[in-house]
Structures are given as structure tokens and as C-alpha cells.
């Protein structure tokens, strides 16, 4: 019997360091739970771009489609425009495989001090719409180089797109106690945001037990810093969700710990699991990157593949290591990527 097929794209910078750490940790837990995982390494990213002029091969998406999941590190290097790396790799994968949910848990971790308030436990989920919204290709530049030069970009919000994000968030809210916050800006953005509000409200009529609040994104951002413990599930458009999740991740400690899942909830296509952070060129190559974002993304992958006990085992293992005081530098500790990862592997065995 063949195992679960996982496509691996380490990418660039610290992606090349945290991704092997993530695989070691996932493999350790997979062994305990008797799961067979077949990792299929793909050397796509900026080096591939330098050789071939593209981020992934012409048939790259077809190759990925033959896998059960995609495990990604980070892409981006200082001397290639980010628009190439993002639109050449990440966004095509998210859209081709209808990964319309970007799920980003934000949690207080043991031994890690919240940056803003230390006394409250933060435990929330950000559900970011991942296929449309503000990140659109529709628009253009006019009068290049002239004083009249102008740029235009159209937002794209569809009833189907907003409703499926709202539905996913509502289901999650039901499973977590029933509070849902929708990020909006209907006072300033007068076409798409009132439409967002309307479709979210319509969708939520199917979930009478969920308490829905709409909050303006500017006030919501401030409130997430001041009172993060008040939030449970937040549903947001592509741009708002992107910003809120970096913000919330920073509030709980370090962006290096934040995981994410790009989900095709119907499982018609592979989903993709990656840390929230980027390739961190400022610390790449030093062996000091925090691997938690990658390891936790691996736990989310196990969960999405239906291996819930293994996923819970893995998160318990890195939380145990943190509680013992082992931390990387971004969290105020001295452990290297390798030392932290070895401690997680040992904890997986210890907690078995
Ligand atoms: P970044 O997330 O790479 O780094 C921001 C700051 O956080 C840096 O000071 C970095 O050292 C620190 N940091 C990030 N991850 C860390 C970790 N695991 N452990 C310890 N410290 C960590 O964001 P930045 O600098 O804006 O972008 C760098 C490159 O990454 C750019 O090319 C950008 O486009 C790309 N990027 C890629 C993403 C992806 O692959 N999904 C997401 C975000 C950025
Ligand atoms: Mg981001």
C-alpha cells in the first residue's frame, strides 16, 4: 500500500532551514501513529527561476495535482521582484487548487510572552478569503512616465467566493463556541464592502447559534492589539486577513511561530501548508530560524489529512518543549533551529 503523497517545496532563505525541521517533526509523529508519508521534493523557487525564468515548470501544477498535500517553506529573495515569486508560485497554486480558505490560528504559547498584554490567553482563528478580493490581476497603468501617470486595480468579490468563506468561518465558529467577527470597511469602500457584509449576513442566517459582529478593519486592528482575548473566529477578505494575521501573530510572540493552511475544504484538490512568515533574508543561513511556524503547519496538514490524533500529538510536543524553556532567539531563547527541532522530536517520543 502506498503512503500519503506530499509535495515539498522548500523555496528560499529560511524556507530551506525550517522545512527540513518540519519534515523531521512530522515524520517523528507519523512513525508513532503508524502513518506512511511519502515526501516528494521539488526544487522550485528562486534558484529555479534564475535557471529557467519561471518559478515552477510548465507542468508544475499538474505535478502538484498528483499529491495529497503540499508542504511549503517560503519563497522570495531580495534581487527578484516579489511579484514574480508570489504571482509565479504561491498565488497560482492557491487559485488552481481552489484553496479558497487561508486558515491561520493565533494562540498564546507556553513560555512565550504576549507582546502587548501578558495576562490574557489568546486563542483565535483567522479565516482569510484566499482566492479573490483585493489581490486581483484586473487593472493597469496609464500614461507611464508622464505627470498624469495613474494606476488602477479592481477588487473582485463574488457571491460564491464570499459565501463559501463565510460558511467555513461559521462552521468553525460553531465548533468553537459560536462567536464570529467579520472584518469590513463598508464606510469607506462603498461597493465591495457593503456587498461583503450582505453576503456574510445572508450566509449566517443558516447558523442561528453563531453571534456575528461586523467590525471596521481599522478599529478591529487596534482592538486586536488591545483586547486580542475577545476574539474567537475572524473572517476577512484576502487583504484584510493577510494584514490581521501578521498583526495577531506578532502580538502573541513572533511571526516565526505562526502557521497557515491554504485549504480546498472539499478536498477535490491538494491543500497547501506553510508558515506565515517569509524567507527572512536577514537571518537566512545562520541556523537560528524558529521552526514552529513550519512544524505547526505540518500539524495542520496532518489534521486536514484526517490524522487528528497525530496532529494533536505534534502540537503538544512543541508546546511541551516551549514550556520547558527551550526557545529560538526570536522568542528570547538561545536554541538553534536544529536544537529546537531535536527537542520536539524527543518530546514526540516522550509524550507517546
Ligand atoms: P519575513 O517574514 O521573511 O521576515 C520578517 C521579519 O521576521 C524578519 O526580521 C525575519 O528575520 C523575522 N522572521 C521571519 N520568520 C522568522 C522565523 N521563522 N524565525 C525567526 N525570525 C523570523 O518577511 P519579509 O522580510 O517582509 O520578507 C522577506 C521575503 O519573504 C520577501 O521576498 C517576501 O516577499 C517573502 N515572503 C514570502 C512569503 C511566503 O513565502 N509565503 C510570505 C511573506 C513574505
Ligand atoms: Mg502576509
From TrEMBL:
Cofactor(s) for this protein? Mg(2+); Mn(2+)
Q: What class of enzyme is it?
A: oxidoreductase
**Where in this chain does the record put each Isopropylmalate dehydrogenase-like domain?**
5-344
Return the InterPro entries for the record: ICDH/IPMDH (IPR050501), IsoPropMal-DH-like_dom (IPR024084), TTC_DH (IPR011829)
The alphabetized UniProt keywords are: Manganese, Metal-binding, NAD, Oxidoreductase
The stretch of residues making up the signal peptide is none
Transmembrane domains' residue ranges: none
Record EC number? 1.1.1.93
Q: What Pfam families does the entry give?
A: Iso_dh
Record keyword Hydrolase present: no
**Record's keyword annotation contains Calcium:** no
Kindly list the GO molecular function terms attached to this UniProt entry: metal ion binding; NAD binding; tartrate dehydrogenase activity
Q: Which family does it belong to?
A: Belongs to the isocitrate and isopropylmalate dehydrogenases family.
Protein's name according to its UniProt entry: Tartrate dehydrogenase
Q: Which source organism?
A: Agromyces intestinalis
Amino acid at each position: 500500500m502506498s503512503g500519503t503523497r506530499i509535495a515539498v517545496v522548500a523555496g528560499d532563505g529560511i524556507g530551506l532551514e525550517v522545512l527540513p525541521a518540519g519534515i523531521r517533526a512530522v515524520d517523528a509523529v507519523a512513525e508513532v501513529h503508524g502513518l506512511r508519508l511519502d515526501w516528494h521534493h521539488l526544487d522550485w523557487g528562486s534558484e529555479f527561476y534564475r535557471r529557467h525564468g519561471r518559478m515552477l515548470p510548465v507542468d508544475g501544477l499538474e505535478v502538484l495535482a498528483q499529491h495529497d498535500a503540499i508542504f511549503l517553506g517560503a519563497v522570495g529573495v531580495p534581487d527578484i521582484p516579489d511579484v514574480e515569486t508570489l504571482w509565479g508560485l504561491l498565488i497560482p497554486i492557491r487559485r488552481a487548487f481552489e484553496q479558497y480558505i487561508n486558515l491561520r490560528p493565533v494562540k498564546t504559547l507556553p513560555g512565550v510572552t504576549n507582546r502587548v498584554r501578558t495576562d490574557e490567553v489568546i486563542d483565535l482563528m483567522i479565516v482569510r478569503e484566499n482566492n479573490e478580493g483585493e489581490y486581483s490581476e484586473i487593472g493597469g497603468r496609464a500614461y507611464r512616465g508622464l505627470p498624469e501617470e495613474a494606476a488602477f486595480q479592481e477588487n473582485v468579490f463574488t457571491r460564491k467566493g464570499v459565501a463559501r468563506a463565510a460558511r467555513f468561518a461559521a462552521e468553525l465558529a460553531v465548533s468553537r463556541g459560536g462567536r464570529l467577527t467579520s472584518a469590513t470597511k463598508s464606510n469607506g469602500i462603498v461597493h465591495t464592502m457593503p456587498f461583503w457584509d450582505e453576503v456574510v449576513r445572508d450566509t449566517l442566517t443558516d447558523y442561528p447559534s453563531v453571534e456575528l459582529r461586523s467590525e471596521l478593519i481599522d478599529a478591529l486592528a487596534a482592538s486586536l492589539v488591545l483586547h486580542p482575548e475577545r476574539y474567537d473566529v475572524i473572517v476577512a477578505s484576502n487583504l484584510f486577513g493577510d494584514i490581521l494575521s501578521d498583526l495577531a501573530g506578532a502580538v502573541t510572540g513572533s511571526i516565526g511561530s505562526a502557521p497557515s493552511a491554504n485549504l480546498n475544504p472539499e478536498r477535490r484538490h491538494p491543500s497547501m501548508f506553510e508558515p506565515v512568515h517569509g524567507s527572512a533574508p536577514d537571518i537566512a543561513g545562520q541556523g537560528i530560524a524558529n521552526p514552529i511556524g513550519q512544524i505547526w503547519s505540518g500539524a495542520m496538514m496532518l489534521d486536514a489529512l484526517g490524522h487528528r490524533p497525530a496532529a494533536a500529538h505534534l502540537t503538544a510536543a512543541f508546546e511541551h518543549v516551549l514550556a520547558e524553556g527551550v526557545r529560538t532567539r526570536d522568542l528570547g531563547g538561545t536554541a538553534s533551529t536544529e536544537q529546537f527541532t531535536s527537542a520536539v522530536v524527543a518530546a514526540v517520543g516522550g509524550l507517546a
